[in-house]
Design brief:
Layout: E1 3-12, E2 15-25, E3 30-34, H1 41-49, E4 56-61, E5 64-65, E6 76-79, H2 91-101, H3 106-119, H4 135-148, E7 153-157, H5 165-182, E8 185-190, H6 193-199, E9 202-207, E10 210-215, H7 217-222, H8 227-232, E11 237-239, E12 242-244, E13 249-253, E14 261-271, E15 274-281, E16 286-292, H9 293-299, E17 306-311, E18 317-319
Parallel strand pairs: 3-8, 3-9, 6-7, 7-8
Antiparallel strand pairs: 1-2, 1-4, 4-5, 9-10, 11-12, 12-18, 13-17, 14-15, 14-17, 15-16
Helix pairs in contact: 2-3, 2-4, 3-4
Length: about 325
């Protein structure tokens, strides 16, 4: 079921949470709303769910104007970051809750709950209380409960943000597999770039209440629309007035090549399978280059070695709007 968001605006007092936002979310796809904290992505998700009312604009779900419909009339499933479990009910009863209040038959409830518990790999924990589950298991229970009523749209608000990195990674993989099985239109909010790039079919980058770019993970990473998108989606460094990925820079020993920008190695750091080489150009600009271990050893360079740097032809670059004071650290932002 597709979602059409047209010219949606939302204010909280003088604060502009959303400014004339228009987004089309394709049916059956897994779409990420990605952006920094306070950028408006959770507000947009809550407006789609009916938990917030937009000041302006329109929301359609499967061709039906849902702008003024209450949440219970929109047939959406919503999963929060902190599970919102009924602590006194078993896992089975938590998953069954939405079906029970809809007065479904006992046989239908039993069948549906059993199917979902098997789908999320919680069948053996059906009679446990939420407090007896791990954080990852509780989040899977929350997803099963949201799916129980067969929503046309599944909305997830930073569903893995409260979990540690290892469990987040496991649940990202699981969510992708689950979506491929159930094919429900899914929208999830995250500020973790790696999570969005790994899981989503399509990413909507939102910043300061506006949509910066919409596209596939490859589109956004390889063809960023502007400086913000490039800086936000992955590691960057600056060479001259161009913003570029550190792995898209070529490094050669000075003397072996006369092209590119001259510089001198100031620091070498190994990070797992990568070698991070920090170079200061002859003009005093700090630049970070990321190499594989084999590439680094083939160069035969060390701290204070003269080198030359150039951008690999065809690599994505963006002209910066103001001189950078330092090279950006080439790391992904992490959930917190």
């Amino acid at each position: 079921m597709s979602i059409e968001i047209s010219q949606v605006g939302k204010h909280f007092g003088d604060f502009v949470a959303l400014d004339d936002v228009s987004v089309g979310i394709p049916a059956g796809r897994l779409t990420a709303l990605l952006g920094p904290s306070g950028g408006g992505k959770s507000t947009l998700l809550r407006i789609v769910a009916g938990l917030e009312r937009a000041d302006t604009g329109r929301v359609e779900i499967d061709g039906v104007d849902a702008t003024n419909l209450p949440p219970q009339k929109r047939n959406v499933g919503f999963v929060f970051q902190h599970y919102a479990a009924f602590k006194h009910l078993t896992v089975r009863r938590n998953v069954a809750f939405g079906l029970e209040i809809r007065k479904r038959s006992k046989d239908e409830i039993t069948r549906r709950v059993d199917e979902l518990l098997a789908l999320v790999h919680l069948g053996q924990f059906a009679e446990r209380l939420p407090s007896q589950l791990s954080g990852g298991q509780r989040q899977r229970m929350a997803l099963a409960r949201a799916l129980a009523v067969e929503p046309t749209v599944l909305l997830l608000d930073e569903p893995f943000g409260a979990l540690d990195a290892k469990v987040r990674k496991e649940l990202r993989d699981w969510l992708r597999r689950l979506h491929d099985e159930v094919h429900v239109t899914t929208v999830f909010v995250t500020h973790d770039q790696e999570e969005a790039l790994e899981v989503a079919d399509e990413i909507v980058v939102i910043n300061e209440g506006r949509v910066e770019q919409i596209g596939s993970p490859d589109d956004l990473y390889d063809r960023p629309a502007n400086e913000f998108v490039m800086r936000f989606l992955g590691p960057v460094t600056q060479l001259g007035d161009e913003l570029v990925r550190p792995h898209d820079l070529q490094l050669t020993a000075d003397g072996a090549d006369s092209t590119g920008v001259a510089g001198r190695v100031t620091r070498i750091t190994r990070i797992g399978f990568e070698i991070r080489v920090e170079v200061t150009t002859s003009g005093g600009q700090p630049v970070t280059v990321t190499l594989t271990r084999n590439e680094f050893h083939a160069l035969g360079i060390q701290v204070d070695s003269p080198v030359r740097i150039r951008v690999t032809p065809g690599s994505p670059t963006t002209t910066v709007t103001a001189p950078a004071q330092r090279s950006e650290e080439p790391t992904f932002a992490r959930s917190h």
